[in-house]
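User: Structure with zinc ion, tokens only please.
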Amino acid sequence: MRISCSVDLINRISPSLSVKKQSKGGHAQLSIGKKPSHDGIKEGTMFLMMCTAKDKNGTKYLIKDNIMQIFGKFVQEGKATVRLKDPEVDLLISKADSLQLKNFLSVLKTAAQGKVLDNVTLSTLAPANSKSVEKPKSKMTIKDRKDYPLRENFPQSLEKLQVSCCRLKRIDTRIFSLRKLEVLNLSENVLESLPEDISKLGNLRELIVSNNLLSAFPASLCLKENFRQNLSLLDLCHNCLETLPLQICELESLVSLKVDHNKLQTLPPTIGRMKKLQFLSASNNCIRTLPASFMQLRLETLDLFANEFLDDSNQQLTDISWNPPSLVECCARMIRKHKLPYDEEELHTHLCRYLDSARICWCGAFCFENSVKYTASMSLKTISPTVSAVDTNGRTDIPVLSFLCSPQCYNRFKQNPYAYWRK
Ligand SMILES: [Zn+2]
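Assistant:
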């Protein structure tokens, strides 16, 4: 019976002298077993043994009548505390597999009461080998194809993985089983697409796929719950993206978005919904106008250098006659307003695309064809205090493409466009 975990050893008599300092969060192997009789110890005496990288031979603690208490409230999180009578120490266990820890504690409890243990493989309490007491590898960087692991698996304990300059055409499926992975960097490869399976990485916070050959970012990926809730950094620089999917605005935890050096002509019309976004760079694209909701962002840094922003953007609104909206438009406005889910299994594809094409009026309402389009020049300084100019002449005003959804919004805009803008 043996588990791998982190153990802090706390001396209860003089906590200041506790071994904790030396072994803080130290990786250890705990075993329950018995040793053949020697040194006057009765045969069959059960011990709890703790081995660490510094102490491979291990320290043994008597089990029978020596366990004062087991604190197992957080066993589901892989944590527990074992309080010993002699010596007066607490073993603070963490980072254990919750199921293994549960079994381990139950065997320990039984052994402490001196009961017979059936069906349990006990350890012989031999010294631990180096591998089992080494801290599990949490970071791996591969920058050369010859270092790519072909025969052995990636360590399951990895939290950060970088595989760059390996001419990867697709992502190795073994990577998707790395449940602890938080940062995945696959920059400088030749990836042409990203599979949906990336969303299996439930703890992924940062995805870096810059310098590849991506022509699209999968919309379906943005709707996967753990991806949506956890991803805080997305780096898509130096690819071949022509558009970003609307659904990218569903990435509610995204703090940093980098899309420099692509072929983007616009940014998603609902980008203003990304309330946590603080760092946005989209330099060296082909953006001509920005969507109105862009003005709702409040960013720490913003870089839109070297795009193709239109020059003359102050377009006068001409009088138009408003026709009643079509039935399709009325339905579509309601579907988007109430966030009703839709997909291609339930609706015809062209209706789905129609719903995707929703424009947002400055009043916040969704509209479709029955709307008025206009562009107005806006200062990027209202969005970010540290905005960089969009060209070498120091320009920071850019054209914003907007829509007005109804005669009411249209009239309010006509009366005072700037007051309305700042609503
Ligand atoms: Zn409106």
